[in-house]
Design goal:
Number of strands: 0
Structural class: mainly alpha
Distance between the termini: 37 Å
Largest sheet: none
Length: about 600
């Protein structure tokens, strides 16, 4: 995992959005326990759907076997059934009107209007039964004709749904949608019609409507409908991936939030050394601009730093790399900014240029490892880190990043060894100590983890980020009060970092459902950094708790806009769409809220 991971992982793995993807459950996940039942139901859906696939395979095989036998039998019966007519009271009623006893479908509307209710239903059921046999024999046009005739006698939702099944078999999806909608207007909780309409919506790429119908079917059947659960998961994946892909293709490169960039940069020991001129010589224009960029980075003026480094690259190309002291760092720094803007191809080009100028530039290997980590090319990451280690086996950052790769693979013991080595190589490097404490906590060495953090806090008493991560571990351990104290200390040390504000907000939200204080803290975080992804996600969660669904969806839409990678965007869209589907269910089926409360 890349060296940005300490900060990046906190935002990703702890975010509300990750909960829906069933990533590793942090203490923040359990804050979801007090959200309204409509939302809790959605979380249950995705937990349940992880088991749906295997059940569906078994069910499908049995269904295919049964259908094959039924179809054969139906084909044998259909021809003889075509001549079958009504019987009993319905036949007598038909005859009394001057109609054909064996073909009641020939009655006029005026004659039908004179039949009593029982006769209407009996005739309709007879026509439906005949239609069923033609459907089973795959004679869909005849089945459609009979179901249509049945509807003349009785507006039964089953008849609409059965006719929709015939249209579905003929790929007439718009007619499926219309018939199922008519069935649902008569019986809003008719699951079979919901499932058929959902499948038709999916076939016409109306994924949002399809998701809603599948979700409704899940809720109505207490999440015991494996087909609905698996289908909802499938449609949600299609919807989220299609939208994310389109957004990534169309969006312009942009920097993430200031807090994200600061966390990324702080996880390096240095962004680069200043260029200095030899005695009696002046700095090149490129080196001067490079030094200016470093100063702007230090003051968190990132847009201005990018302008300076772009000009520095132009100056290198005008003068030639041989005449610039920090030509390698100039290209490497611009490659880093391209990476942060998710312009990965441009980032690779700049980082490769830096290595062409200086094949021993360790910082560039580390930055390129970041990029490969983003692409999930862990083999590429390993190769780059090995090259960096060969170049400088005493570089602490190399072993820190090696530890991060092991952490990503959940190889915690190996990660701990690399963090310990990084700490020994550079005792002033705080992040290996932080991650070592986290790893010790992960493998159950609680006392060692607390000792690691205690030693680190004595050595780095002014590091706000250290107290923030310490609070994370305390909260995960269940020590909410101690965690809140750690977050307060972090805020006291650095009022410009939004993460401890958000972490404390979630802590008080979890501890005593103090939504007022949590809202205040998150709004303070957004004042510090209006684009803090974690703050936006947490605010959407609290709005859900308060029943403010429209406001929650506004924040979730904002989370989609702020997502940096396509993968993060898929997660954000997934949670937005699940919440929207369930909110719609709540509005359309208010009578079922008590049922849903009982499901928690």
């Amino acid at each position: 995992m890349s060296s940005e991971a300490v900060d990046k992982q906190v935002e990703r793995s702890a975010s509300v959005l990750e909960r829906l993807n069933l990533s590793e459950r942090s203490w923040k996940f359990y804050a979801a326990a007090s959200v309204p039942p409509i939302v809790a139901a959605g979380l249950v859906l995705w937990h349940y759907s992880s088991r749906a696939s295997e059940s569906l395979k078994k069910d499908d095989k049995k269904k295919r076997q049964r259908k094959s036998k039924k179809a054969k039998k139906a084909a044998d019966e259909a021809d003889s059934d075509e001549k079958a007519g009504t019987s009993g009271a319905a036949a007598r009623s038909t005859a009394s009107l001057g109609g054909d006893e064996e073909n009641p479908e020939r009655l006029t509307d005026a004659q039908i209007a004179k039949l009593d209710k029982d006769a209407l239903k009996e005739i309709a059921q007879g026509l439906k039964s005949r239609g069923n046999k033609f459907f089973q024999a795959k004679r869909y046009e005849k089945a459609i004709e009979l179901y249509s005739q049945a509807l003349r006698f009785d507006q039964d939702p089953v008849f609409y749904s059965n006719r929709a099944a015939c249209y579905a078999a003929s790929d007439k999806h718009e007619k499926v949608i219309k018939d199922c909608t008519d069935a649902l207007n008569l019986e809003p909780q008719y699951v079979k019609a919901l499932m058929r309409r959902a499948q038709a919506y999916e076939s016409t790429n109306c994924f949002r409507d399809s998701l809603y119908d599948f979700t409704t079917a899940c809720i109505l059947e207490d999440f015991k409908n494996n087909l609905a659960a698996g289908s909802a998961e499938r449609v949600l994946k299609k919807l989220a991936e299609a939208e994310a892909r389109e957004r990534v293709e169309k969006r312009q490169p942009r920097l993430p939030s200031k807090s994200f960039i600061a966390g990324y940069l702080n996880s390096f020991r240095s962004n680069g050394e200043e260029a200095t001129a030899d005695d009696g010589e002046s700095l090149s224009k490129a080196d001067t601009l490079y030094n200016e960029a470093l100063g702007l980075i230090a003051s968190q003026e990132y847009a201005e730093a990018i302008e300076a480094i772009d000009k520095a690259v132009e100056a290198v190309e005008e003068a030639g790399a041989a005449k610039v002291v920090r030509a390698d760092d100039i290209y490497s720094l611009r490659g880093m900014f391209h990476f942060l803007k998710s312009s990965l191809d441009q980032a690779v080009a700049d980082l490769d240029k830096a290595l062409e100028i200086n094949p021993n530039h360790v910082r560039t290997y580390l930055r390129k490892a970041n990029l490969f980590s983003e692409k999930k090319d862990l083999e590429g990451v390993d190769n780059l880190l090995d090259r960096a280690a060969e170049t400088d086996p005493e570089d602490a950052e190399v072993y820190f990043q090696k530890g991060q790769v092991h952490f990503l693979k959940q190889e915690f013991s190996e990660a701990a060894e690399d963090y310990e080595r990084a700490t020994k190589l550079d005792e002033e490097f705080v992040y290996p100590r932080i991650q070592l404490g986290v790893v010790q906590f992960k493998i159950g060495k609680m006392q060692e983890a607390m000792t690691t953090f205690d030693v680190a806090m004595k050595k780095f008493p002014a590091r706000s980020d250290l107290y923030n991560y310490y609070g994370e571990v305390l909260a995960e351990k269940g020590g909410i009060d101690s965690a809140i104290t750690a977050f307060e200390k972090s805020m006291e040390l650095d009022k410009t970092n939004p993460l401890p504000y958000v972490n404390q907000a979630i802590a008080v939200f979890q501890a005593n459902a103090d939504t007022d204080k949590a809202l205040t803290l998150i709004r303070d975080a957004l004042k510090v950094d209006s684009e803090c992804e974690l703050a936006v996600a947490a605010l959407s969660q609290i709005y859900l708790q308060m029943g403010m669904f429209d406001e929650s969806l506004t924040m979730l839409r904002r989370a989609v806009d702020l997502a940096k990678s396509e993968e993060e965007m898929v997660s954000a869209i997934t949670f937005r769409e699940t919440t929207a589907a369930q909110f719609r269910f709540m509005k359309e089926h208010p009578e079922l809220l008590n049922k849903m409360m009982g499901m928690q």
